[in-house]
Specification:
Strand content: 25-35%
Strand order of the largest sheet: 8-9-7-1-10
Radius of gyration: 19 Å
Largest sheet: 5 strands, mixed
Shape: flat
Number of strands: 14
Order of helices and strands: HEEHEEEHEEHEEHEHHHEEEE
Number of helices: 8
Oligomer: single chain
Structural class: alpha+beta
Distance between the termini: 24 Å
Length: 280
C-alpha cells in the first residue's frame, strides 16, 4: 500500500490538479528561418504542421531506429522548443548539431534559464484560464494519464507560478506519486523502461510520437520496414499480477518456467487495487 501522503498527492492528480516540479525535464530552444524544416527532417513527428502554440510528442532516433530521446515539441511564433528528459538534453543538442550544416537553425540549451514543470489533473484547464505570467509557455502533454501540460518557465518566475497554481487548487506532487501515476498510464521513462539499446518500436511510443504521413526522417526506413514486415521480438507492455508483493526492477517474467521478459517498473496501483507493473 502507498503512504498516506503519496496517496493524497495521487488522488489530487486523479480528481483535482497536481503541480510536478521535478527536476525531470530540460528545454532546448531552436530559432532560425529553417528551424521547422530542419527538425522535421530529423524527428519522427510532423513538425511543419504544428501551428504556433501547438505541441506534439516526437522521438529522436539513430539511423537504425534506436531511441536517443523521447521529446515534446512546442511551436512558438518565433521558435520551436524541445522538451526532453533532463539527462538526454546533452544528447539532443549533440545530435542536432551533428546534422546542422547550412540550415538557418540556432540551438540554445535553456536548462540554466528555464525550468520545466508539469500541471496535471482534470482541473488543469480551469487553472490555466487564470492569467499566467508572460514568458511562461505551455505544451499539452499528459505524464499521468490525466489532462495536463508541461510549462516552460523562466527561473525567476517559478515561485510566482507555484503560488498561482497552488492558490487555484493544485497540490504539489512528488516523485513517488508521479511514478505510480505514470506506470498506471503506461508512460515509460528513459533510463528506467527504455534506453539507447531499444528500437523505437519496442518502447510503445510509436502510436503517439510517429507521424505516418510525413516523408523521410532519420530512422524512418527501419521503422517503416518493421511496421510492414513484422514487429520486434520484444515490446514494452503493461502487466497486472496477483499477490501482495510488488516485483522489483530486473525481476524476470516467466511462462512455463521459461524467461519471456524482464520487469522495468512496478508499483502498487490504487486504481486497480492490485500490483501494476511494466515489463519488457
Amino acid at each position: 500500500m502507498l503512504q498516506a501522503s503519496i496517496l493524497e498527492e495521487y488522488r489530487a492528480v486523479r480528481q483535482q490538479a497536481g503541480l510536478i516540479e521535478g527536476p525531470l525535464w530540460g528545454a532546448v530552444e531552436v530559432r532560425g528561418a529553417d528551424r521547422a524544416g530542419f527538425l522535421h527532417n530529423l524527428l519522427t513527428q510532423d513538425v511543419t504542421s504544428l501551428a504556433p502554440g501547438a505541441a506534439a510528442e516526437a522521438a529522436l532516433v539513430t539511423p537504425t531506429a534506436k531511441l536517443l530521446a523521447n521529446l515534446v515539441v512546442l511551436a512558438d511564433a518565433e521558435a520551436h522548443w524541445l522538451i526532453a528528459p533532463l539527462e538526454r538534453v546533452d544528447t539532443v543538442l549533440k545530435t542536432l548539431d551533428h546534422y546542422l550544416i547550412t540550415e538557418d537553425a540556432r540551438l540554445a540549451d535553456r536548462r540554466g534559464s528555464h525550468v520545466v514543470l508539469a500541471l496535471q489533473g482534470p482541473r488543469t484547464p480551469e487553472i490555466l484560464k487564470a492569467r499566467l505570467s508572460r514568458g511562461v509557455r505551455q505544451a499539452a502533454y499528459s505524464c499521468t494519464g490525466e489532462p495536463g501540460v508541461l510549462l516552460i518557465v523562466p527561473v525567476e518566475q517559478v515561485s510566482a507560478l507555484r503560488t498561482h497554481c497552488c492558490g487555484h487548487g493544485a497540490v504539489p506532487v512528488g516523485w513517488e506519486a508521479l511514478n505510480v501515476l505514470r506506470i498506471e498510464a503506461g508512460i515509460p521513462w528513459f533510463g528506467v523502461d527504455m534506453d539507447e539499446s531499444n528500437l523505437l518500436s519496442e518502447t510503445g511510443l510509436e502510436p503517439r510520437a510517429v507521424s505516418d504521413t510525413k516523408g523521410c526522417y532519420v530512422g524512418q526506413e527501419v521503422i517503416a520496414r518493421l511496421n510492414t514486415y513484422g514487429s520486434t521480438s520484444r515490446k514494452l507492455m503493461g502487466l497486472v499480477c496477483e499477490g501482495r508483493d510488488v516485483p522489483g526492477a530486473n525481476d524476470p517474467i516467466e511462462k512455463n518456467g521459461e524467461a519471456v521478459g524482464t520487469i522495468t517498473s512496478a508499483c502498487w496501483s490504487p486504481t486497480l487495487e492490485a500490483r501494476s507493473r511494466w515489463g519488457m
